[in-house]
Amino acid sequence: MSASDEPMNRAEEGMPAFSRADRFKFWLVSHLGYWSIRLISITLRWQVDGWEHYQGIQAAGRNMIHAFWHGRIFMGTYFWRNRGIVVMTSRNRDGEYIAGVIRRFGYGAARGSSSRGGRRALIEMIREIQNGRDVAFAMDGPTGPRYVAKPGAVWIASKTGAPIFPFHFSAERKWTLRSWDLFQIPKPFSRVILIMGEPIYVREDADERELDAAQARLQASLETLLRLGDGHWETVTETP
Fold first, then answer.
1. Any idea where the domains of the chain sit in the sequence?
2. Over the stretch 15-26, which tens digit does the pLDDT of each residue have?
3. Bridge partner list, 89
4. For a tag on the chain, would you pick the N or C end, based on fewer CB atoms within 10 A?
């Protein structure tokens, strides 16, 4: 396929037909984003709570559905790198920037969102699970409302039997952007805590009542992890 064919093919797939200038910007931002995340993250001091939940899923030989809040993508991108996880990213310019960065960290990208191309991307993620790969959702993405989980992860769990694996990152020292998701960028040499929650299982072909109950459990789990993670640095005391 030639470069001149790409806009037409993308349009056929429901993707915007970006110009050459746009594609150059995506390439540039993906490089800058990759090195910004990499250079800051290698200085961070990581603490993990609940690692046994992740290990338990792996020991059972199950693929999983990673679930987290959109504003913590920076830390998650580095920590879960090079595992072949497929992440849903939106079909707009912001999604292009994110996809370009995460692919450099060894992720796949299923292009879609709750508002555009969502069903196609969800079906793609089901296929990825069936082919032995993990998938991931920023549960309140791509545009919020903040800290309100969308139903995609629960729906996929009901079609595949894959457990939903909720987790949350929080940095002790960080920059918080004035974006809808209060995007966090940890400051160099900061401590970061990752809290992993218990997996959530959904019976395959669950009925509407079961899906609603699973969605409520996921929302509650992510809210609890948010409270514990962000509150952790308020209660920590330095040892002499």
1. 3-228
2. 567 677 777 787
3. 111
4. C
